[in-house]
Amino acid sequence: MTGFWPELPSSRSSPKRPIQRERGEVPAACSRDLLETRSGSFGRIRANRQGDTVDGEGMGTVQKGTPHKWRHDKTGRVHSVAQHVAGIAVNKQGKGKILATRMKVRLEHSNHSKSQATFLKR
Question: Disordered: where is this region (predicted)?
Fold first, then answer.
């Protein structure tokens, strides 16, 4: 029965075509860890462990799991580790006090801090 609206072709009658990509055959997420950045090789991410001192730096090539703007480039200690995420305890200055806050950051956005390098050499 045809009513006011014309009937649309069923999905069975339309030919199945593969979804084509505009550039290349591999999506960017698969080759993301092959990229090199200005600071060096992005390659394999160094694993974080509880108690490590890390910097939470937002990486522009990966948007997911970036720290908030005031938490960018803050140094803190790792308090929890998951498969793709590290929890970092960071100090925040506010209300005339220094408050300890916690943030969750993907491993791409955390680098091991060099702030204790001279202390450990002694």
Answer: 1-76
Pairwise pLDDT comparison (10 vs 85), residue with the higher score: 85
Q: Which two tokens stand for residue 107?
A: 């491993």
From CA 39, how far away is CA 96, in angstroms rounded?
A: 35
Give the domains, in start order, of the chain with CATH numbers: 48-121 (2.30.30.70)
pLDDT (tens digit per residue) in 71-80: 888 899 999 9
Decide if 113 contacts 119 (C-beta within 8 A): no
Q: Which residues pair with 89 in a beta bridge?
A: 77, 102
Q: What average pLDDT does this structure show over 65-90?
A: 87
Cα gap 55→67, rounded to integer Å? 11
Name the nearest CA neighbour of 32 among 19, 22, 44, 21: 44
Q: Is the pTM of this model over 0.85?
A: no
Contact 48, 107 (CB under 8 A): yes
